[in-house]
Design goal:
Helix content is 44%, strand content 17%. The protein has 259 residues and is of the alpha/beta class. The chain has a single domain, classed as Vaccinia Virus protein VP39 (Rossmann fold, 3-Layer(aba) Sandwich). Strands 3-2-1-4-5-7-6 form a 7-stranded mixed β-sheet, sandwiched between helices. Strand 4, helix 9 and strand 5 form a beta-alpha-beta unit.
Length: 259
């Protein structure tokens, strides 16, 4: 009887997930790169962590996060492209940015001249980053986004005015990075999620990083390669864990390597 009581107690942590899986299976079209909203508490945690990394005021970071969430032109542009794309059967029209809110805030506060993201997929992260770069441009800070992806159809969400500050480099990410010659202020790893490939990307861009460059790892909830890279290069490391709301996926996170 004690076994059954303990079993029931433990299952309480997971029972709600089955209902979320059922709702998701019926309502969502996504089959990879799942999107979801973050809890209010989680957003506050994210803002505080970015504040620590960048030494910027917490309220300013929070302002940037809400700026991205409330950008109607950004959301309308994404929805418009999805509706007119052959890939619409795999994408939802409810735009949920998750940890990309953190990417946006980093761009807004850091004012980078060059941002590189490996692994573009549909291009949701691409267009969010470019939206931040356009806001920076309005304030007199010019920056460019470069995304890499081996899939020639990747990045279809990057359209309209966002192409003014962003472009996709097609081909193997490490090959593209090996030929890259500009200093990188913000690097985001989000491509092949094998540990060895991830680490090879960090080694490839090591000498391209600017003095105060920030490196973000999208796979740091699975591998320790950004931590290993940080230790090797005398950089600090932090990890932010996502807390999705109303979604079965437990969330990924952002590994953050900085000086």
């Amino acid at each position: 009887m004690n076994f059954l009581r303990r079993l029931a107690q433990a299952s309480k942590y997971y029972n709600n997930k089955y209902a979320q899986i059922l709702r998701w299976g019926i309502k969502s079209k996504e089959d990879t790169n799942y999107t979801y909203n973050l809890s209010d508490k989680n957003i506050c945690y994210l803002a505080h962590m970015i504040s620590v990394v960048t030494s910027a005021d917490y309220q300013l970071i929070l302002k940037y996060i809400y700026e991205a969430e409330e950008d109607e032109f950004l959301r309308d542009s994404i929805i418009k492209v999805i509706k007119n794309s052959p890939s619409r059967k795999y994408a939802d029209l409810d735009i949920r940015l998750g940890k990309r809110l953190g990417w946006y805030a980093f761009v807004r506060v850091q004012k980078p001249k060059v941002v590189v993201e490996t692994g573009v997929d549909k291009g949701l992260g691409s267009v969010v980053i470019c939206a931040a770069l356009l806001k920076n441009k309005e304030e007199g800070y010019v920056g460019t986004y470069y995304g890499t992806d081996i899939n020639p159809k990747a990045g279809y969400l990057l359209t309209d005015k966002y192409l003014e500050v962003g472009k996709i480099l097609y081909g193997d990410s490490i090959n593209s990075l090996s030929q890259f010659s500009e200093n990188i202020d913000l690097f985001i790893n989000d491509s092949d999620h094998s540990a060895d490939y991830e680490y090879q990307e960090y080694l490839t861009i090591q000498d391209l990083l600017s003095e105060n460059a920030i490196v973000l790892g999208d796979n740091s909830h699975v591998t320790d390669k950004l931590l290993t890279f940080s230790n090797k290069t005398n950089r600090k490391f932090l990890f932010f864990k996502e807390e999705p709301i109303n979604h079965w996926y437990p969330g990924g996170g952002i590994g953050i390597s900085f000086k």
